[in-house]
Amino acid sequence: QVAESGGGLVQPGGSLRLSCVVSADTFPYSTIAWFRQAPGKEREVVSCANSNHPPSDGSTHYVDDVKGRFTISRHNANNTAHLHMSRLKPEDTAVYYCAVGWGYSDAWRPVSRYDWWGQGTQVTVSS
Questions:
Q1: What are the backbone dihedrals phi and psi of residue 76, each rounded to the nearest 5 degrees, phi first?
Q2: What are phi and psi of 96, to 5 degrees?
Q3: Is the peptide bond before 55 cis (omega within 30 degrees of 0)?
Q4: Distance from C-alpha of 38 to C-alpha of 77, rounded to nearest angstrom
Q5: Per-residue pLDDT tens for 92-112?
């Protein structure tokens, strides 16, 4: 089970922190990603955090649009991940989803890479 929380309404330039809790003992060996889907658009990846268990290297990745504004983190001790979002823009408005990918893969962008999904949490950036 994957559960997100932390969404809400925030003014442009503001910050939010999203949380994801995963009910699986294999969490430390999984890739954790955040996706978002705006109305009328396809679901797109925002960021991912790879496992630090070999062959994964513990690296993190971001799409260009959020680099320098969003930070992903993971905490294997309690099966949680966070997405800290700052300097939010109206175009960041979307439903944000936490996704879990089992096993190792070089791919992190495709929706198909991920096996478990949360229900999503709404983020609205508006004045």
A1: -65, -25
A2: -105, 135
A3: yes
A4: 32
A5: 999 999 999 998 888 999 999
pLDDT at 54: 87
The sheet with strand 16-22 has its strands ordered as: 2-5, 16-22, 80-85, 70-75
Residue 96, judged by CB atoms within 10 A of its CB (0-12, 13-18, 19+), counts as buried
Residue with tokens 């229900």: 119
C-alpha–C-alpha distance, residues 100 and 2, integer Å: 8
Kindly state the tokens that stand for 37.
């889907």
- Measure the CA–CA gap between 43 and 96, rounded to whole angstroms: 9
Over the chain, what HEC string results? CEEEECCEEECCCCCEEEEEEECCCCHHHCEEEEEEECCCCCCEEEEEECCCCCCCCCCEEECHHHCCCEEEEEEHHHCEEEEEECCCCHHHCEEEEEEEECCCCCCCCCHHHCCEECCCEEEEECC
